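#dry-run=false #mode=assembly
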Amino acid sequence: MNRKLASAGAIFACAAVAAGCGSSGGGSTGNTVAGVGSNAKTVTPDMAKNPKGNVTWCIGKDTTGAFSQVVKLYNQQNPNAHAKLLELPTSADAQRTQLVQREQAKSPECDILGMDVTWTAEFAAQGWLRDVTPAIEARKSEFIPSTLETATINGKDWAVPFNTNAGFLYYNSSKIKTPPKTWQQAYQMAKTDGGLGYQGARYEGLTVNFLELLYSNGGSVLSSDGKKATIDSPQAQQVLSFMQQGIKDGAVPKSNSTWMEEESRNAFQNGKVAMLRNWPYVYALAKQAGVKFGLEPLPKFGSGQAASILGGYNLGISTYSKNPGTALSFINFATGPAAQKKFFIKSSLPAVLTQTYNDADVKKAQPFAPQLLTAVQQGKSRPVSPVYPQISEAIYNNVYSALSSGTSPQTALKNAQNQINKALQTF
Amino acid sequence: MSAAQATAARPRVRRRSEISERRLAAYLVSPSLVVIAAVAAFPIGYAIWLSLHQYSLIHPGLVRWVGLDNFRDALTSHAFWSATRVTFIFTAISVTLELVIGLAMALLMHAAFFGRSLLRAVVLVPWAVLTVGTAMMWRTIFDADLGFANQVLQALHLPGSHTVWLGQNGYAMAVLIFADVWKTAPFMALLLLAGLQVIPDDVYEAAKVDGATAWQRFMRITLPLLRPAILVALIFRTLDALRIFDLPFVLTQGSNGTTTLSLYSYQQLTQNRLIGPGSALAILTFIIVMIVSFLYIRLVGGNIRALAEET
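#status=ok
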């Protein structure tokens, strides 16, 4: 009984989070993960030239119908091939569980795996993905470079970016006249002009919000060889003290510690906070609610570079696929200009191709496209590691205890450092 | 399978002695024992097997035998003991409250008065609602900014209308217990009501004739005769409360001192995919629940039978 309820709970919990649930990121190039790519099979662009036979695309729920439309379009244009959509649950956790189960069973059912950007390293490490380096190389200039980073490990590409996502700073334009350029300004204004909200509950969203400030302040989580934690740094202490002070000062309301995406959006729409860090999906909903607001890419920390954590999904080809050539042909189609435009307009899934953001129809449907392009270009990925869930847990647990139970930043970061190092030793 | 073979070997039970009757009984239940073995014993055995290994997250398919290391790690970790403490605190307080409130509800429902059937139906509504639904509802009610709880406090000019219920250590647990009591007190009431209904009316009438007050009748007649029902209800609820997962999962995701044992092992198993350590935690939870149920049955199980025979 408990198990059933648990999965139902996961769906509820995540359905409410909409865009945020599947959100992750892109960071520094040259991710290193031991063991990835030792015996991988490669898919080359040539193999995609004569698509034929069946392929199945496994990805989260098709809430707007855009996925099935693109599948239909592909099938019309490629009469010898037949693509099929297999919808996974709405919640990201449940999607991952479903895919992991299939891959562990070496099931050929899913040819094309729709993966949140944070799972890609894990899937590659487990040997579940085919090497798509030649296919990416052939089209590299089309993609926004930051979107490729979560799929590039040990110098090879393991998946093709499908959609991306980046955080914005929304501000209530009746209270905030000039949007802040730095987080320092933002917190200062929040103290006097009505508060700032973000995703501060103890979950993945808090990791994202912390990393955005940390990266902007020049900090990091892992060493460049991916073997050691580097989170216990002066930069991180500065950021965590800053965030802690923000709650003490009342710049960030105390209830922020219970907010996920939707709670923080409600707080913004109801005027509880005048500024909000959230994903692009808020735009349409806040407009509908009649809020007068503006939005900007995230501010920077002090004199650092602005950094948003990237979300989104990658498409990989399963090692156990019986039809990898057609799978690649479908992926090229789904990540091509026509399909990307459709997904962006119809499903609000931010495109991974630079050209899509300059399209007149896209700009009309998603007026924030220019700011989003900037945000994605400045975007960073979360640590690329097969043990990412444990790394993130170490971050959000300890950041949360600093923000909410008054643990000192020094202790919190030391604990995070130790827990991440322990996770990295997982063999 | 063994059942089928055994029956084939001895087609007819000749003597009617107690032993052969017992043997017949064993044959008759053996098919169900096979089913139980397949659906219960095998998964438990498999979980024990998993808990003695480590599964690589980096090298595909690599498995390492680690013996009892996963158990040692769990038993020496702060997280495990904190989850155990949380689970027991939750169980003790919520089951006690449920018993008291459930008993009161049962007495009310038992009393014959106008609108009794309506009352019974209304009281049972919380029990009929899915726990996850309940949890979502309480999460909204205890939302710090828009929640009903704080709005009411504010409207009545009571202090605490800015409490972040789910964001602070003691309050989060209080909401958890509150939500659980709200939902399961009716279940307790239902079990106790069944117990009340078998107490014969003439006992009360005799007591009344002897001049016993209502309070005396409750203490001397109702409570002692209700004891078997109370014990059964307590066992049910305690074992359920020790496995609590859904409420903290939805309400707090385990933050602010609400990570229970089940939630902790779920996080390790599903979220972090630590199959070995996660299974070890599940086994430890299982052992704890077993010990508690064993103690219950030892301490009170005999009593139930004795009491049942008395009545």
